[in-house]
Amino acid sequence: MFKKQDLILYFLLIILIFSVYIFSENSENISKKVIINYSGKTETYDISIEREIQIQNALVKIKNSKVSIVENCCQDKLCIKMGEIEKENDFILCIPENIIIKIEGEEKIDSYTW
Predict the structure, then answer these.
(1) SS3 assignment for 16-85
(2) pLDDT tens track for 49-92
(3) Which domain holds residue 59?
(4) What is the pTM (predicted TM-score) of this model?
(5) Is the model's pLDDT at 114 over the cut of 70?
(6) Overall number of domains in the chain
(7) Do 47 and 23 reside in the same domain of the chain?
(8) How many other β-carbons are positioned within 10 Å of the β-carbon of residue 44?
């Protein structure tokens, strides 16, 4: 059936795969930034630091590496209904208040071609 060396090899492969998965999960949020554009101004915030930001009549919340607009005085409140964003290139748009919130990060190489 299985030899002792085979079991050791399988065990080492499982440990290697698990450690790569853990490393990639922990490094995902390191370089992400929240970019907020409003009325011709741009502000940048670190997504890993929890905070609430007042932008004009909107309250933007950064919590658990997610961004959302929690309060706004616009009529339809579509920006609040958009919910939380957390991935790169996701955005929240509020047209009445002229606010664009976007998550940006370093470009990652997802595959190599030889």
Answers:
(1) HHHHHHHHHHHCCCCCCEEEEEECCEEEEEECCCCEEEEECCEEEEEECCEEEEEECCCCCCHHHHCCCE
(2) 999 999 989 999 999 999 999 999 888 899 999 999 998 889 99
(3) 33-104
(4) 0.67
(5) no
(6) 2
(7) no
(8) 9
